[in-house]
Amino acid sequence: MSEETRFNPHVADTRWQKAWEEQRTFVADDASEKPRCYVLEMFPYPSGRIHIGHVRNYTMGDVLARYKRMTGHEVLHPMGWDAFGMPAENAAMEKGVHPGGWTRANIENMKAQLKRLGFAFDWTRELATCEPEYYGHEQALFLRLYEAGLVYRKESEVNWDPADMTVLANEQVIDGKGWRSGVEVERRKLSQWFLKITDFAEELLDGLGGLDAWPDKVKLMQENWIGKSQGLRCIFKFVGSEDGIDVFTTRPDTMFGASFVAVAADHPVAQRCAENAPSLQEFIAECKKGGTTAAEIETAEKQGFDTGLSVEHPLDASWHLPVYVANFVLMDYGTGAVFGCPAHDQRDLDFARKYELSVTRVVADGDQTASDFEGDEAYSDAGKIVNSHFLNGMNVDEAIAAVIATAQNEGWGEGQTQYRLRDWGVSRQRYWGTPIPIIHCDECGAVPVPEDQLPVKLPEDVSFDIPGNPLDRHPTFSKADCPKCGQPARRETDTLDTFADSSWYFIRFASQPSDKPFDKAAVEKWLPVQQYIGGVEHAILHLLYARFWTRALSYIGLLDVKEPFASLFTQGMVTHQTFKHGDGSWLSPDQVKKDGADWIAIEDGSPVTAGRIEKMSKSKKNVVDPDDIVDQYGADAVRWFMLSDSPPERDLEWSESGIEGCWRFVNRLWRIVDTYNRYAASDISIQSQQTNLNLVSSAHLTIDFVGKDIERLQFNKAIARIYSFTSTIEKAGPGYPYWEEAVETLLKLVAPMTPHLAEEAWSSLGKEGLIANAPWPQVDPAMLVEDEVTIAVQVKGKLRDTLTVAKGLPKDELEALALASEKVQRNIDGADIRKVIVVPDRLVNIVI
RNA sequence: GCGGACGUGGCGGAAUGGUAGACGCUACAGACUUAAAAUCUGUUAUCUGAAAAGGUGUGCGGGUUCGAGUCCCGCCGUCCGCACCA
């Protein structure tokens, strides 16, 4: 075979990327009359290089976007940069570069990388959240939310590094210690800004019901995150006092099993008791050690401190319970105080055993009704209430209702709906973020920056030689006059959580006026995003915040859209084999080779352990740089690999043999095109060896399946179909009836996936215009009907024979044919037939 | 600790409760070639068997059903998220 039949991706890639750009092929037209389709992938953080996981994400979106264009839609497929964040500040500290310079240089590099992959982005709408043209509008939106009462200030805990005197992100706390200082981290309270996401808890929960095209698991995770529960809020009065402790419980049915009341370390009762008790002060300080993450707090050993106070049981004033301060009670949830029922809650049981408190069974585990509870495993299942006076004999739900009713009658408590969801703390004590547009005045308090003074720009002249927020020590930034009274005041130096930046970027993509965040009518022409694609790690926070932000904008009248993302797809990670030396150091896959059954280092032949297949990460040296593989194989083979084999929601393992296989397929497609052209140019007629192939029906079946598979993002299945169709075309060969049409169909089917090859082929076939603009092939339903089916014949559920029969054959005829089978008769072996199950066009099962 | 998922050949995976292993990768054999690469053809779950055929088989243990990879119950293992990473 001659050289020129090899596809040259380096020539084709640049040629067609240039053509698309010059012809503005993928620029979305706001004025279009076509049906609209907004396809969006989560925008990347500009960390420096495009990661192979990005390539997978954007390839999926790109295939859908290109397919939607070919099926007659006006497609909006934008790209931008989630450009604020901690890594830029880390780079500043480590390399002495400016976060802005570092970030903008990264954006340039990564943009060039993305362009090489031929993604059909509308680059005219590119945005970066770190530019005042973006964050200025965000500040305006923040102030609108502030005016609407959705922003407030309260105290909240942060990770505090006492050595560096700085706030740490959870990520910067390693095993309870500061990542740079190595000193044990403390929890410290700061006054911070919050968004009232809890006002929308019920709406956000209800809204999930309408998100039919979201994965169930994501909806379930969000539901659990919002964590709606019904319970009882009630007072446990201090003995001999009208004052008491406000307690929330979801299990009022277990009230007669109470053996203690516990409050959080920050609870006012704990604080008051500590005033004259140094040992309690010490205990509270101990509770403040360690980071703020839920996992850390909840896995810490349960500890308590007896305050010496007693409270009365609400249902029996003569029954007194001790009050503890406990490290596992959270001030943020409920009322910051609980009553402990050890028999039916594992945490309470651990605590009660440790401090030798009574453990009374109040829910029967079958016939276990004794009041003394044995063992160290709490019983939290359903059952009958026992040892509980007027509740005895009820089931759990009846008892819950009865206690709430009693509490309301007697005036010591009431039923309450509780959410686990907390308000969103948006203050960050960091430089590289959106400045919060507030000025603090001694006289007037917190005063919003007037809209005509926006954006509040981040100063660029900052230094990172000492830890902490450089805005705090900037000579002029924090100095401002109060907009209300004109007196000297202090500008807020905290910046906004970067999740705020990513909570409305999809809106700005749809409409980018310079004088306001967006134009309502323009946005509503595009939103909701028809398909949103990104990593499952965003299942809760980003997606919940974006839903909230959209609803909040709708609440203040800026938008009539409630849910931003009509369908969501969460894709899996890209993984790769890891390799380790005996000394524990990692080796990259190109530093090792196989030596028989073992792996050795190429450099010195030393033995290497093949480790687990893990998410690509620099530290484990199992990364693959997209640029390198595009250099080697071209964009199309890489794109094909991203789509093939693994289902998109699962992890994809990068492998050398896999990409080689994709490269071979790209060339296989090219050879078909080459054959097509050579056959068209000659007048020799070629007689195919095959006669039993039906190219027309395979083409239509493939069009049908591939279209449906792309719509469902099941690219691996679409690709399997395309492989089969390709084989059929090859077997048939030129000259076979319908061969040329079949090849043209094949090119259109692969056009969204391997667009450069498809354009190159399309033009070599002498077709007019871009294949990107060509219409998707039409399915003729008449061609999908098969006239023969294969029937499975089972005896007692085991396959014994298959029959090929006309489609739609009646049951009795199928049964007769099955019984006539020699193999079936042999297996029945004269036994009585008890039953015959016939599923038309499917199977016959003979039960003996 | 809480929440969510996943588990099928040597590997990635396919399979409206109805023929388990489509399609791809790898490996092996053959063709072409002086040779190699590329390409093409064939084989490739496992056990017994020369073959025909038969047994076993979807993490483990039960259950529902004429029939279970799929549904139900109980385990085991692995991965992800947990509010200041993005």
List keywords for this structure.
848 residues; alpha+beta; four-stranded parallel β-sheet; 25 helices; 34% helix; 20% strand; RNA-binding
Low-pLDDT ranges: none
Major sheet size, sense and barrel closure: 6 strands, mixed
How many helices?
Answer: 25
Secondary structure category: alpha+beta
What fraction of the residues are assigned to beta strands by DSSP? 15-25%
According to DSSP, the number of beta strands is: 33
Alpha-carbon distance between the two ends: 60 Å
Q: Indicate the percent of residues in helices.
A: 25-40%
Based on Cα principal axes, name the global outline. Answer: globular
Summarize this, please?
The protein has 848 residues and is an alpha+beta fold.
Protein model, in words:
The chain is globular and about 105 Å long. The strands form nine sheets. Strands 24, 25, 26, 27, 28 and 29 form a six-stranded mixed beta sheet that branches. A four-stranded parallel beta sheet has the order 2-1-22-23, covered by helices on one side. The chain is of the alpha+beta class and 848 residues long. A hairpin with a 3-residue loop joins strand 32 (835-839) and strand 33. Helix 8 crosses helix 9 (278-287), helix 18 (635-643) crosses helix 19 and helix 21 (715-732) runs antiparallel to helix 22 (739-750). It starts with 8 loop residues before the first helix and ends with a strand. The chain is built from 25 helices and 33 strands. The chain binds one RNA strand of 86 nucleotides through helix 7, helix 10, strand 15, strand 16 and helix 16.
